[in-house]
Structures are given as C-alpha cells and as structure tokens.
Design brief:
single chain, about 170 residues, alpha/beta, Rossmann fold, 7 helices, about 55% helix
Amino acid sequence: MNVILIGYMASGKSSVGKVLANKLNFEFIDLDNYIEINEGMSVKDIFKDKGEIYFRRVETKYLKEVLNEKNHIVLSLGGGTPCYGANMQAILNDGNSKTIYLKTGIATLVERLKNEKSKRPLIAHIKSDEVLTEFIGKHLFERTPFYNMSKIKVTTDNKSEEEIVEEVVAGLF
C-alpha cells in the first residue's frame, strides 16, 4: 500500500508525511524533492528557467514513475500535482494507493506561507498578506474539487503533526 498526501502548499504534507512514514515503517518521498534529484535543479529554478508547463510535464512523468515503481511509501505531492493533466485520475486508478487530503484553512495557510514566499515560486511575487489571502482563496476554490476526490479528508487547523497522523492512520485501517 502507498499513502498519498494531497493538499495546498503549507498544509503539512511533508512534515506530516515524514512522521506518518516513520509510524508506518514506510519510505517517505516528497515528489518535489524527487523531481529536483532527477532533474538536477531546484523546483524554483525549473520554474524560472524552463517554465511551469515544463515543470508540470516532468511532475506527471515522475509521479507515474513513483506510482509504478514504489511500494510501502508515503508520497507527499506538490499542491498543484493533483490538479494538472490526468494526475488525479492516475492516482485514483492506482489500486495500491490511498489518498489523504490534508485540509487546511486559508488563515492558517497565510500564517504559514507569509514568511516563506521566497521558497515558493507560485507566491514569490506576492507582497502583502491581503493579496496572499486572496491568491490562496482563489487557488483553493479551483483546486478543492480535485483535493476532495481523496478517500480520506483530515482537517489540520490547530492540530499537532501527531494528532493529524493518528487521524490518518485511523482512516487507513
């Protein structure tokens, strides 16, 4: 079985994923890190030098590679991964995977993202908290239908990583 964590950027997919993988004794893979290793450059540089369309193409390629080649993993996806191409269909059609949506409120996301914008290519240009709030709200409106296709949904606001992991494990078994 593979566990796939889906949600908006800063929803806790990587941090929760590491704790969950440890608890399940699974390998943890962050898809963005996997892409960086295989492409030999950071996601930020891929966006800057080759563009988002190129990034989305290689993201799909490496997602399918991980789904086809790995087992007993916790896979943390980028926030946009389920929303492009046929990625969500590929995930849902993979009989070996269970999807978890880490649902996080806009206020929590703004609080987490406002000081790390430079590390996030999609929001690096945003100057104010108000514009960031509007950007996240618009993105969530567009992406939530994809996220909601997940088998399990866990609200993360005001919860520790351990509490979230316990909810995920309860939903898995």
